[in-house]
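Field: COMPLEX_INPUT
Field: COMPONENT_COUNT = two
Field: RESIDUE_TOTAL = 625
Field: MODE = joint
Values follow.
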Amino acid sequence: MDPGPVREKLRSFIVATLVRDASYPLRDDEPIITSGLIDSFALAELAVFVEREWHVYVPDPDLTVERMNTLDQIVARVLQG
Amino acid sequence: MLDLLDADAAVEGSRAIVYVKPGAGDSETVSKGALREAADQYARALWSAGVRQRDVVVIAHPEGLEAVFTFLGALRLGARPSMFPAPSEKLDPAAYRASTQLMARHSGARLVVASDAFLPVLAEVVGCPVVGFSHLSSDHGRAVPAVAAAADDIAFLQHSSGTTGLQKGVALSHRAVLNQVASYSDALQLAQDDVVVSWLPLYHDMGLIAGFLLPLLQGLPLVLMSPFDWVKRPALLLHAIHEHGGTLCWLPNFAYSHCARRVLDREIEGLSLAGVRAFINCSEPVLDSSQRAFLERFGPIGVKPQQLGASYAMAENVFAVTQTPMGRPPRLDHVDRASLTHRARAEPMLESGPTAGVYVSCGPPIPGVQLRIERGLEERRVGEIQVSSDCMLSGYHGRPDLDAGLFDEGWYRTGDLGYCADGELYVVGRKKDLIIAAGKNLHPHDLEGVVNSVAGVHPGRAVAFGVADEAEGTELVAIVAEVETEDPESRRAIGRAIRQALLEQLGLSAAYVHLVGPKWLLKTSSGKLARAKNREKWLAERGG
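Field: COMPLEX_OUTPUT
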């Protein structure tokens, strides 16, 4: 998997679908759940997106606020496979 | 109330509660005998901690079996437990200072019980003693005197969230609770082979009554899980139903959409939901579209229309006011929306009519409960739903001043709007401006209070309202706040601060936070912010 496109696909998914604001300037290290930008329902949505897009299943121990709070973290998890 | 629990001594070893966790094979089973022992032990520990009959015991951040044991232990002492709505989602406890202060100020608690992580913060802001679950579970105090509760004694309190909710603890008597359990069991045709599966938070009336006390008091197995675990992984509920033979499951409308959209095929391979008697939709407006999405997604694993049910319920009536008959899907009523809006009348109209809308029935009242619209309007006339029953609240805890406005000629005024047709209730609206997001009642006043306190927001110039989202099957929260700065970077910072404050103080994530300049917000003629008008303006600007 190529990190570049993965990051960009995730970024646009997060701002368009989860934040509901396509123009939101999401920083790579910005905490998105603990800041109240998105809620934990969004974690479920993210898990589905990641599975459908890259066939990567995020198991329960990894699907947590601590481990999926920033774009950097999410990208890293997806690249892990 | 606990007499029912004690009377069920015949089958000590059978399962009372199964607590399910994510990840295979990870669940904790508590037998009926063990549950009784735990209730006794927690009662002894609470007594040692100074709790006596009629004391209020607040269970903060109620999750897991310890909260259940504490609740039952308090009941044993004739004390009044209350599961408090917790904003937490395993976020930093220190961030919840403001909400815990609120809780402390309004609860009149003798003791607050919480998980260990929250003790330091709570101890600082709460006036009464604070104790951890771990302390209660390890304290083997001496035996406590038996307490004989009278039927009209208050059994426990129910609070909803926010300043408004925290100030209005619904006080429920033993008599009311037992009447509800008996009547609702009747309406549900509850039988000994029923198994209730629930992810619902215990501070929510649906979670506390349908998803906890009802099965427990009727001696039926109860399967529980953490709401936080379910939200992230909705398939957890379906697995639990399959694995433990679940037959009854209560869900707010959004949960139907959430499950339909966020369960992967691989997660439901080999599962069957055919054994479920009813999925009961309750706590927020029931949408036909959400139920259809659920049916479509899970039809292949055994979900059928006759498994879908609905109920209209509220803490003030302990829980259920109405319930659709078992074994058939809720009736759908196709009406003319224009007539509803302009003439307060639900005129039947063909589905294909230009202004046709569909409402899902919540069914007839359960035994012991009567309904009327306003002071007895005829069928299909829309007005305030009023309830009279043998399971009503005794009052709001510590708020006798509120008693006068509660009843009209002895009928409880729900503040919800609806109509009756062919003996069934259809709910069409709710208390003025109330937002119901993901099954939770949110008072705009509470949200606006939080937003107004954020630096950069012009105090007093913020509105909060709900935005219906069909895909999510619920309302999303929108905030429009006036700020002076026009600088984009400063505005973004204020936006972040607003979201952070709402999360920390009310545990919610606002879907839309819109910052505007001084001339945007509309006012009423008396100079107050016109919430509904601003909502319309915002929707119009978005093209919605």
